[in-house]
Design goal:
Elements: E1 3-13, E2 16-25, E3 31-37, E4 46-52, H1 55-59, H2 67-81, E5 84-89, H3 92-95, H4 98-109, H5 114-120, H6 131-140, E6 144-148, H7 152-159, E7 164-169, H8 180-190
Length: 196
């Protein structure tokens, strides 16, 4: 992978002032960003979230998932601590893309769960990958994180890319009647740690 830092700028948000850092995989032209606040390169473990893009949840407020509320909760948590980083990865639909995600939604409407829908479309349950996180965090001077996630496999994925996760910080939010099955599938088939 050939991974390049592109530019940084100030990003004032309703949660506080972040700095947004843009990166690009020069092989695929895939773009990713990091939102940072405070002194994250001081050697201390940094509060972090690795968030894969979910246009339907993050942008449109979909209730089919918990993605939008998780992103907002992570930004609020970073802002409340005054220090942290959120890696926003362009991996829509667990890596299958937006159009295929809508196809998967249609299969879910017909009774499939999220894993079954991906598999019926010919994809693995989760095609996301995290090698870009190492490049992004290295550029930002971060090697140890307190990772906001309910997914133990994400902790393992980051460790495989030389990122030390010193703590898993649960991020429980966004539960609603429309995503009960989605969250149950995360627990039963994908190993997420969610309250009973």
């Amino acid at each position: 992978m050939s991974f390049d830092f592109i530019a940084s700028s100030r990003l004032p948000t309703k949660f506080g002032d972040f700095t947004i850092h843009a990166f690009e995989d020069s092989d695929t032209l895939q773009e990713h960003v990091a939102l940072a606040m405070g002194d994250i390169s001081n050697g201390q473990p940094v509060l972090a979230r690795v968030h894969s893009e979910c246009l339907t949840g993050d942008g449109f407020g979909s209730l089919r998932c918990d993605c939008g509320p998780q992103l907002e909760a992570a930004m609020l948590r970073v802002a409340s601590e005054g220090c942290g980083v959120i890696l926003y990865l362009r991996q829509e639909g667990r890596g299958i893309g937006l159009v295929n995600k809508v196809r998967a939604y249609a299969l879910q409407d017909a009774g499939a769960d999220t894993v079954e829908a991906n598999e019926q479309l010919g994809f693995a349950a989760d095609l996301r990958e995290y090698s870009m996180c190492e490049h992004m965090l290295n550029h930002l001077g971060v090697s140890r994180v307190r990772l906001m996630t309910n997914n133990p496999l994400k902790v393992e994925a980051l460790a495989a890319h030389n990122i030390e996760v010193v703590e898993r910080v649960p991020l429980i939010t966004g539960n609603n009647p429309h995503n009960e099955g989605y969250l149950q599938t995360k627990t039963d088939k994908m190993g997420h740690i969610l309250p009973e």
